[in-house]
Amino acid sequence: MSGAHIACCDRCASLTGSSRGTAGSAPADGLAGSTASATMVARRRLLKAAVFRPQAEPGAPLQGADAPGLAPDDGGSQSAGFANVFQLPRTVSGTILDVSPHVLILGDGGREQRFVLTPEAVAWCGAQLEPAALIQGDRAIGRNVADRIWANIGRVTGVITERSGNQLLVDEGATRESQVITLQPRSLGRIQVRFPTLEPGYLVDIIGIRRRDELIGMIPATSQPAYPAQRLPAPPLVSGHVPKSISGSATWHEPRDEPPGILGVSYPALDPETGCAEDLAGGMRQGYSRMPFLAIGSVLRIRNDCTGSSCRIPVTGCTPIGRLFNDRCVTCGTSPRGRVADLTLASFIALGGELERSCFNATITIGE
Amino acid sequence: MTMLNAIREVQIPLLAAMLLGGCAAKVLQMIRAGSAREHIGPTALFPMHLRRPVAIVLCLVEAGLGLGLVLTAGPFGQNDPADGIRLGACLLFVVATCALIEVRQSLPDVGCGCFGDFSTSPVSSRTLARSVLLAIASLTTVNLGPVTWPRTTAGALGLLAILSTEVLLIGVLSPEVGEGLIRLGYSEPCELRNVPASRSLAVLHRSKHWRRYAGLITSEVPEDVWRELCWRFIVYPARYQDRETEVVFAVFLQHRRPVVHVALVDSSTGAPLERPASKQRSRWPGLAALPRPARSLSPAFNAAQARSAPADLPVSTDL
User: Do B69 and B165 lie in a common domain?
Assistant: First the structure.
């Protein structure tokens, strides 16, 4: 039951399935940075709640003993003002088996799902198009039972390690394979306006069409930082108390090795003591962004400032690349700071983000 | 010497100091970075292959103008050479102002680079105002005769006052000064402080709670260690009343008298267990009999609450 509040909605079966951990369920070390197991997330929340609950006197009945499944600090999740997650848009994904102007059939693991397309339904596959223009076999992800569909969308965010003609080899971190971006001549100009230095050592963040192991670059997801990844400017000093709510930019990343549909967030400042498994091969530990240190399993309340949707989402990984950027999201106004959260596809879509816009202005609240 | 003349004379050493200081800071930045490839403020506007030559030319121009202003301040190189250098300085600051406006619009996260690594904060209106001020200051020095030492004490004090006022004005317009002052008295918030886990373990092992629960703990190695904000959580396997349990410690990450919280939980269900009775006798026996105030369950998971740790939490500061 406690896990249900962590993962915050019915679509997080992988996270809610095992809310109670056992003593041996979590590794003692090396856990930070790896994709969090649902057990670890739930277990840490449970233990944290236990250690901060009022201590019962010897002989007195234990609080919560009559409701053992309810973590004490989850009480807050039921308070007024918590996002009604059941009203959040639902995310659907699968391979397109058939599509007509009115019906979309997606296949996912041998299961067929039919969705009625509304007249307002819009698709994206490199550009805005009618859903009927999608092709069988395209990998699609959609929102609100297919009123918004993205086909074969992909994103590569990382450090350029090699350039050969119009192909870039990009390092996305130690736990991910290097990605190849192919820049088509018709998109090259558009991309180079925002990414003028397509040279090894510089950061790149490009959205495009996923074709097997390469990404056909279509849209620059942000503006390129003027500094190379190895020469980050000194981060600004932070003094005083760190606020619980921090506004900035929320981006998204492709699932790679994450289970599809998982609601999670990669956070730019995991405790350096435990390390970030996704760190770059170059071993850059320090990023530009100064954020409070958290761990796998910490829960953030993330609010899409453009739509007002919010949800509590567990930290499931770190974002070694995101912390190197000092960009701003301009989806609805200019975000006051750079990347504060790197959401999974499902989280991003559920919170009302438009994938091709690359980010939304977000406010994260820590420690709720 | 008129007041206006005194103000004009003060500009020469001030401009020379700014130009030479800026050049030295940029050279230092290049030495630290190992190359001139790294952008220095407005050089980020240029294609990468041009950044290095532009950065070098900028440094040379600054050094040349700075030295030129000093050398031509006196009788040497009067009239044309001196005016040429002063006009050159004026032109440099005008161009710099235009470049900073462009940087501010097209690369809002890039600093002005005026003083190398010290100028990393994004270009602001203060930075622009400083550049404009220096351009005006340079312009006022054109057609100025040789700078002479004041003949009277009053004159010297007047010059000093003008110089101090202008230095203060430039200081106010310089984001680098504020940043430097902040660095001098900077204390990092605990949420951002990198605290080794070994230190938290050492703190824990010296605490009263550790002594109280040590008998239950069955492993020397913690089962899980993680950190959230200002707290580090340390979990040990334990055995209590023939049940598999876990002892969870939360150690506040501060240097002096850190707060420690503890809980004993059932391993299989995660339910908190009644804590074992303390073997230590309270110094004030009557205190334990006092009714505890009822408290609503608060998150208790932020530094502010931690600093005023609730009385009903098991807290130890007796290290």
Answer: yes
